[in-house]
Design brief:
This protein is an alpha+beta fold. It has helices at about 10-20, 25, 30-35, 50-55, 55-65; strands at about 10, 40, 45-50.
């Protein structure tokens, strides 16, 4: 999850390869909420925080990891 704090974010393919499940399946509907709210972005390869999301990243990470 520390990769989320980096500009490049989490590489979805690498996450799946490492953990045996997709980042999407781990985060579920919460991920959609943050993507549609403009707090996170998905560029077709990786998930990362937007500038707006960085300001509330602690909250988002604790919500996703719940």
């Amino acid at each position: 999850m520390l990769h989320m704090r980096l500009a490049e974010g989490i590489d979805a393919e690498q996450f799946h390869s490492t953990f045996g499940r997709s980042f999407e399946s781990l985060c579920g509907e919460r991920l959609d909420e943050y993507l549609s709210g403009g707090f996170m972005r998905y560029d077709g390869r990786s998930y990362s925080f937007t500038t707006k999301g960085m300001f509330v990243s602690n909250y988002i990470l604790s919500d996703i990891l719940e």
